[in-house]
Design brief:
By secondary structure, this protein is α/β, with parallel strands linked by helices. A 5-stranded parallel sheet has the order 3-2-1-4-5.
Length: 381
């Protein structure tokens, strides 16, 4: 059915072209045929030529159409709406410009040039409508604001935070790392996650690698991306932006971040250093993990006041100034008194951080014994 329709369209277009342009060819070749018969010959020849062309091009057109349909099916309604709207605006502008061109009666200018203008204007209209979605959203949101949001002069006051960037661009390493999924689930990352197609291609290349280790890493990155898309915790978009004049993926990420005013999310230390010189903001997940590490480390000494008994035998409970609970071994014997303790471990829970410690004087015997044994060993040596 689809093949028959495409071939019919080709035949109709060929018939129209034959009707309009083959008479010029007969005149140039000095061929004189009866006018009424010549019209049918022109239509038949044009339709036949284009029908033969359709036999070779139908399969390619169907494959291309399916790719376009699959691509459009993945896009958001806002993407399709503004893309279609600006395409129509581009066509209207091309028609308005073409009106005086049609009246010139000059070959090429009065027929071919208007068609080129329509193609060019519609293309740029579609690109303008689909690449500036944030601006269109802001325009709609500002138009819907109540009158209270307007200043005394009647103008809409726009207050944009310079530190806010809507797009968070994910690189290959952050998807392979996998912690971005846990970070997104916490709700601390806002805006829209943007995954460029060149990052997806690099992940696919790694997943198809001959080395088993690389293959596992690539597949893990693809699995994390699929989880983010399926669960829809935050909006996630794919970007077909590419920079043919740039070969390195890292450089493409920086160029894309500058174009969409986005932030690059990564755990690549080298990329982090390069970005610092490019006037692009970066969110390094390793720096985030480092900043969330417990400030108190094993072996550190603290002075605390034991205020209540613990759940286990002979334990006491104290609190730091920030409210962190300190569980002290044998702390029950030092209720309501200041005590110097040594941290043995720290535990991070959903309710907060817990620190386990023991009195300093309880470790002196062990430390002195170890010191004496080490001294005796050095003397014997």
């Amino acid at each position: 059915m689809r093949k028959g329709f495409i071939r019919f369209v080709f035949a109709v277009v060929g018939a129209a072209i034959g009707f309009y342009y083959l008479p010029v060819a007969w005149f140039a070749l000095n061929i004189h045929i009866q006018h009424s018969l010549l019209i049918f010959i022109d239509i038949f020849i044009g339709a036949l030529i284009f029908w033969l062309l359709s036999l070779a091009m139908t399969d390619w057109i169907i494959r291309t159409t399916k790719r376009v349909e699959k691509y459009l099916a993945k896009q958001s309604p806002i993407y399709l709406f503004f893309g279609s709207l600006l395409t129509i605006v581009g066509l209207v502008m091309a028609v308005l410009i073409s009106v005086p061109l049609w009246r010139t009666n000059i070959p090429v200018i009065d027929n071919i040039l208007p068609i080129l203008l329509m193609l060019i204007f519609s293309y740029f209209g579609f690109r303008l409508g689909t690449t500036r979605l944030d601006d269109w959203r802001n325009l709609l949101s500002n138009s819907r604001k109540p009158a209270d949001d307007r200043s005394h002069t009647g103008a809409v006051t726009k207050q944009r935070d310079a530190n806010y960037h809507h797009y968070k661009i994910l690189d290959t390493n952050i998807l392979i790392d996998g912690r971005i999924y846990d970070l997104v689930k916490t709700g601390f990352l806002e805006g829209t996650l943007l995954v460029p197609n060149f990052v997806l291609y690099e992940l696919q290349y790694i997943a198809d690698s001959g080395e088993s280790i690389k293959r596992v890493r690539g597949r893990r990155g693809l699995d994390i991306l699929n989880k983010l898309r399926k669960e829809k915790i935050v909006p996630i978009e794919m970007s077909d932006e590419d920079f043919d004049d740039i070969k390195e993926v890292d450089s493409k990420l920086i160029a894309l971040a500058k174009k969409v005013d986005g932030v690059i999310v990564t755990n690549d230390w080298n990329l982090n250093k390069v970005i610092q010189f490019q006037n692009v903001q970066v969110l390094n997940i390793n720096n985030l993990a480092k900043s969330l590490r417990p400030r108190v480390i094993p072996g550190e000494r603290l002075e605390v006041r034991v205020v209540k008994k613990g759940t286990e035998r002979q334990q006491g409970v104290a609190y730091l100034d920030d409210g962190t609970m300190v569980v002290v071994e044998d702390g029950r014997f030092y209720m309501n008194s200041q005590l110097m303790v040594e941290v043995t471990s720290a535990l991070q829970t959903d309710a907060g951080r817990m620190i386990f410690a023991r009195p300093v004087h309880s470790t002196k015997g062990i430390n002195d014994r170890e010191h004496n044994q080490q001294g005796k060993k050095e003397k014997s040596d």
